[in-house]
Amino acid sequence: MRGIVGEFDPAMAPLLLSYGKALFELAVSTQGALGKEELDKQAGAEVSQIEDESSGNLVESAEFEPEAEGEPSAEDAAPEAGAPEPEGGEEGGEDVDEPEDDYNAAWEVLDVARTIYSKIVEDGGSDDDKLNLAECYISLGDVSCETENFSQAVQDYTSALALKEPLLASSSRALASVHYQLASVLEFTPNRRSDALSHVEKALEGFQARKVQLESASPEAPDVVKMSQKEKEAELGDVKALIGDLEAKIEELKAAPEAKDFVSESINHLLGGIGSDAGPSGSAAASGEPAKVNDLSGLVKKKPAKKAAPPPPATNGNGTEGESDKRKAEDEAGGQEKKLKA
């Protein structure tokens, strides 16, 4: 198709959308707990084991013989004249480039399809073109979810919802599905739990309206009129099961606390709940009562105070008592002696 119509021709859009969805399904199917590369290695090892068992030969480790002195090694030997050089600049001509990730390949293909459909819609495309553009956004959102790029997934699902809401009835399962996909991403987005609850409630309203249409004796929906009784019963069972799941999801979102910063919560927990409402200090602050502080000063043993040493006697510059002080002491002693004699 590229060779016939070109890369960005409108005729390429449906094919690119289908191809991108197929790449996404391939990426999901090959993604396991051990990762895609590990699964490929295990598959290759199993195939080799089957081939060895079918041939009846045992695989043994190769034994390397020492090189004779004077003979050049294979690495040092110069290439013969006229021999083709290995491609890619690598030894042995092996291509060491790793295969492109399936998620990245799906994203690139779906983004090209989105670009083409966006140009078609801008040029006055039909409602079907708008719905196809919405499908591109939904598929891009699915890739973003699998690669844990939740902020981009929110943008893609929101764009798809904006395109589908004016075109589809409120009882459309496709519209309810987009509401639920958007709610699933918002649930893990900080401070967006209320928005997630709102979208789950809208999805529930859509499935309940669909249930009424399927149970009606004279349905107004054109697609329900064309369905057989067996098809109605099968879809009605699916819708009832989905309604039960959505009701349980709403109760879960209402009961769960608002998602907060995990790092801040961990720090507050390590500090004993300081700054949070979970610990005792937080509850006391919320109730307005002063926090009780345990006085441990009575358990502290105090050392006895040291006695002050008497001041040293006054000395003169030579380190002896002053002579004026000596005379004063002698006069006082003489006066006391005279009083005793009298």
From TrEMBL:
Region (Disordered): 36-100, 270-342
Major location category of this protein: nucleus
Residue stretches of each TPR repeat: 134-167
Descriptive protein name: SHNi TPR
Record Pfam families: SHNi-TPR
Family: Belongs to the NASP family.
UniProt KW keywords: Nucleus, Repeat, TPR repeat
Subcellular location: Nucleus
Domain of life: Eukaryota
GO cellular component: nucleoplasm
